């Protein structure tokens, strides 16, 4: 029992087929005990389910003497396990600590019931700004805790705010009538209930008796409770109030003690348990898979490495680039029928492996708190950490074995790759594959663009991103002069990487051209706009775009803003959105350009940014994915998102197919192959000219 919850957590983090148990109150076996004993919740742990290949056919490790190489001088080694984030909760100041300890209040404030709800919510903020705490006191009104000087200043500000609000109402409206007896009784009942619920955030009274006492052994070695829940464990306040229980931590037994009614204690214990699952979900190891997938009848027998030059800066040329990425390319077609059959079977199994991995990844993020997105990107597969071929080229099986090693790292580029600039006409001509998203739009060529800008601001807690968007007003006659600005989105990215957190990355690569479809599950932290500093909100108001410039020039900046705060980076986008025929999948074709601004710049002294050449990106998604993941964005503590995690829901079959007998995931993969052939038509018949084969690069 010493590390029971730690083992429970680790068992879920293994490659299990199922999700963590979604236990609801009343579905577990509970043992009723007297007040001197602790209730014991028993749970059997299932052994981790390993793939059949790992159970019966263990793959020998890579030779120890073989050296691994990292791209762009990056250090080698396995990625670090993400750390669990602290739950967001206002930390206790001196006044709040005194209130939790049931010390007497220093002063009171009487708030008229006629005051609007908005200003009543602001009163607590005024008290916190002065280092005090404001709470309801039954029979008195609102009490103030803190030092005498702070309480006096806080009361003065609160009374001033109340007076200003009432004077504004008197000058603008007629005098408010008194509350009817029924409304007054209703208001008093709400007040008493608020006082009662808030009492559970304090320590219990010594003479108070309880129907049940429960204990939860906390995995303190993995997650120090004061680090993730706050010094006073204030993150558990919603659990205390919702379940009407007292929750205290006893460090000598590393357990939370829960006191209250029998059903309430059971519900609170389950909420605390799910809080552990939420912490584990934030720190699970990301899933990375790099799989081969043949989209033609020819399979290569050798794999070489071809230099790949990404979007360079506008002023640079290929000769100026010192750090080069490498992308795998297939060579010399397999002629042996048996070897060809084996390679083809592995490709089919890789699709199934991608499906299973994606399904397991979805089951593990019910408890994840954050803004989660699932997109499927088309790009070029490049190596980030690999073992160079000993003979200048890899045997096909040698390459596939290397990609399965834990040291291996690879990723799919955001840009489509080394394709020509005629991307938009190719997409506009795919009438059999794509349809306009708007039913009122006649042809693919009539689809109007949308514009967006992603600003990055440096911050110690993780870079802050501002996402702005613009689209044409509905009913406007194909004119960009009338644009409607969308709602601002604020998110925070990982502090160490400066990017979104990758939860699952699964790439299906065709080695004939190096193009790959990558299933990406990423997460950021949602930021409440009310908590954004005024300097950033003022910056957002000053952002303007020039749509005529965006449509006329590919490498000219069309986003302008006032220099209120320094910007770390900017990505400007022109987006064309379509639907895949007979499905509800959305295809986004985006032309984007990145600008990176020098560190340490000021709003007065501007240094020229490093601007990359514009390039095209393509991704596939579903609106339903965003709807289901929206439940994770502001997930209350001790709860989980209850969206379905079966593949039939996430990847439904085509509209014209039978939902029971059709495989929606395979249908999607087939459509992705067709989209890829728009940009790589040479593989249409499974042929590739000898002159198109990449040059062998020796990495020894």
UniProtKB/TrEMBL annotation:
Name this protein carries in UniProt: DUF7905 domain-containing protein
Organism: Sphaerulina musiva (strain SO2202) (Poplar stem canker fungus)
InterPro entries for the chain: DUF7905
Domain of life: Eukaryota
Pfam families assigned: DUF7905
Spans annotated as Disordered: 1-99, 680-700
Residue ranges of every copy of the DUF7905 domain listed in the record: 343-653
UniProt lineage: Eukaryota, Fungi, Dikarya, Ascomycota, Pezizomycotina
Basic and acidic residues composition-biased segments: 1-12, 78-95
